[in-house]
Amino acid sequence: MKLSLTLSSLLALASAAAVPEAAVRPQIKAYGGFKVFRIAVKDQVAKVNGIVDRLGLETWKAPKVANALADIVVPPEKVADFRAAAAGLDVTTMHEDLAASIEAESRFSTYAGISGSANETWFNSYHAYADHLQFLRDLQASYPNQSAIVSSGTSLNGRPITGIHFWGRAGKGVKPAIVFHGTVHAREWITTMVTEYIAYHLVTKYGSDPETRGFLDKYDFYVFPVVNPDGFVYTQTNERLWRKNRQTNKGSRCIGRDINRNWDIAWSASGGASTDPCAADYKGAAAFDAPETADLANFLKKTKASQGLKLYIDWHAYSQLFMTPYGYSCTAQAARHTELQALAKGTAAAIRAVHGTPFQYGPICSTIYKTTGSSIDWANDVAGSEYNFAAELRDRGASGFVLPPAQIVPTAEETYAGVRYLLRNMK
């Protein structure tokens, strides 16, 4: 962990990592002719898995259990075979032309700074990694007595895991902390924008809104919009749908670890992550052998020890879920289980009240699927954070990971409403 970095050295490192990418228009992996299909699995789990395996297809949602949904990416040369194999199944099309969807999503606007009208237009499109760093620096510079740029550590390729720390009238580091992680999985771009939206509105409304002032006077906030910077940059320069970090694996041609399966909590248990380095949910060769995960854990532990850790949320997409521990067990219950379910239910209702977007809630294992080595289980059981949640933001499969820019603001608005509910109702 590199908490000893000075502000100037942190910004210099961030700029050094970002400059070559800032001028590069994203060179997206060719997805010409690719389609994304959704299958309502029903009682055909074995058949759908057989199609995926036989044709060697990538899945956004794997067909793990009966009555689930399977979202499957099909290259052009396999479309006819897929249609034939899936005859008789309940199939819908998510992306008729995946390349066109990615191109429309990746039309980044030019960042003009945070002053004037630019502060709101930022949230109208996705952005290059270098601009995200600059946005955080500009936000901090606008409120220099109430915020600081921080790093929770360094990625494999030397990029600082950059966040913004902000606080209220009591000063920094003296109140319980709230920590948000975004873009754990590199392709989940909406989480980058949503966490920045939360930070922006909490910081900028402190002076004018009594409720916001109360939040910051009660808690310190640490918001990290991109905790997987190497993977995120790779989605912007090489392969839009990349998920993991960019770590090599001994004895394998495949790259990357899933840094949300690499935490030292039930890491060795089976069924919640893959041991295959080529799999999207590869857990690594050992717990915490991904530098990003190890540094994030150290930051949480040190924060807990120095000021207390009130709330931790790990932001993901997609599926519209607001979940609680545990992922590693469908029978174990967290110590605050009843309270967590009540808060998750209220958060889902607050989200839905804004734009009518429905969210399901409950423990990870029973709500989505079993996960081992996940951050919120570790934060709950090891770091001792009081409240811990994992969110899956929009949508439920119309667009999936390639969420149109027009949905950034409404997604952020409803998510912010959910956060406000939590901040009002946590004990």
Please trace the helix and strand order, writing H or E for each element.
HEHEEHEHHHEEEHHEHHEEHEHHEH
Radius of gyration: 21 Å
End-to-end CA span: 31 Å
Helix content: 25-40%
What is the 3D shape?
globular
- Say how many strands there are: 12
Instruction: Tell me the fraction of residues in β-strands, as a range.
Output: 15-25%
Order of strands across the widest beta sheet? 5-6-8-7-9-12-10-11
Unreliable runs: 1-26
How is the main sheet built? 8 strands, mixed
Number of helices: 14
Question: What structural category arises from helix and sheet content?
Answer: alpha/beta
Mean pLDDT: 92
Give a verbal description of the structure.
Its main location: secreted. InterPro entries: CARBOXYPEPT_ZN_1, M14A-like_propep, M14A_act_pep, Peptidase_M14. This is Peptidase M14 domain-containing protein. There is one protein chain. The chain is an alpha/beta fold and 427 residues long. The chain has 14 helices and twelve strands. The strands form two sheets. The protein has an eight-stranded mixed sheet, with helices on both faces. Strands 2-3-1-4 form a four-stranded antiparallel sheet, with no helix packed on it. Helix 11 (337-355) links the parallel strand 10 (321-324) and strand 11. Helix 10 (291-307) runs parallel beside helix 13 (375-383). The longest helix has 19 residues, at 337-355. It is globular and about 65 Å long.
